[in-house]
Write a structure and sequence with these properties.
With about 325 residues, the chain is α/β, with parallel strands linked by helices. The protein contains 10 helices and 10 strands. It has helices at about 5-20, 35-45, 65-75, 85-90, 95-120, 145-150, 160-170, 175-180, 200-220, 275-290, and strands at about 25-30, 50-55, 80, 125, 150-155, 225-235, 240, 250-265, 265-270, 295-300. It has a 5-stranded parallel β-sheet, with helices on both faces. Strands 6, 7, 8, 9 and 10 form a 5-stranded mixed β-sheet that branches. Strand 1, helix 2 (about 35-45) and strand 2 (about 50-55) form a beta-alpha-beta unit. Helix 1 packs across helix 7. The longest helix has 22 residues, at about 95-120. Bound molecules: xanthosine-5'-monophosphate (XMP). Xanthosine-5'-monophosphate (XMP) binds next to loops.
Length: about 325
Amino acid sequence: MTEFDEEKYIAEFCTKVKKSISEKIVISVSGGVDSTTSAALLKQANVNYEVLLMDTGYMRKNEIREVKSMFSQLGYNLKVLDKKKEFYSALTGISDPKEKRNVFRETYFEIFTKYLIENNIKYIAQGTQFWNNQSKIYHNCPTEMFNRQKLKVIEPVKGLSKNNIRKLAKKLGLPAKVVNRMPFPGPGLLLRFGGEFNLNKLETIQKATFIVDRFIEKHKNYFSECYQIFPYLCDCSPITYIDKNNEGMLGVIILIRAIKQEIKDNEIKYVPFQIEENLREKLILELMQLKNVGRICFDMTPKIGFGSKVKPGATIEYI
Ligand code: XMP
């Protein structure tokens, strides 16, 4: 396998995009490594571009503010479209996981294309598109949907592995926070709770995610091998727990999904990352401080890819 040459990739991308597109390109970003690197490539190419961040309402606590400030520090002019109300109302009453993803995608598409058409923009850029054969689309909107509206899609990091995208990000001078950021799905916290959307659930999963992220940051050496870790709020009957006042209470269950990469048979596998007892207990205690949270469970189900010979198994996300 030949080594990935970041400089060559950047130079070739810049020449190609500069030569082929003179009109304005809108790049929709989330603050993640794929879309931020894509934006940095457009900046490097010195083309006419605009950076847009859609506030879907399913971002993490303070995330919009942090992404906005990071882009401004990097010298970009970031425009935020606050569409929380639209997303919340579109997703109210929907509990089927596939339907949640579909409605999210349609809502995103409708709002985004409306903006593009109103502003007479034909070109959009976005991070990597990847589909698996279960129609789980890892993109807020697939290229095909935009093409139907005669919009043209550029994917500056198309086909690159996450590791190579991280190398590009570093070469382009993006901060370590972006380069090393754990994957976070486009539909965000919408994928991180079961059942119908309501503001209480969103608030609980937002707080739990904040606690887990802060915990990882505090113990970053220990978690350096962890590919992804996040909480998921179950949608099930309340369970019993004992609160700090020694009262018997009813509460919700939070699952912790922690994954690491392992090279086996020359292939990257994603397997559970086991947290040692001491840290696990600390994390449980922190999460149990949340109102109505009655139990913390650790998910040890192996991740398998579609088409894998080992069956059954699970995906990383729950939706
Ligand atoms: P699964 O759940 O399929 O996830 O094992 C594999 C990786 O992809 C991420 N993921 C997404 N990323 N939009 C994204 O940008 C999505 O809709 C999406 N769904 C899953 C997941 O977090 C994991 O890293």
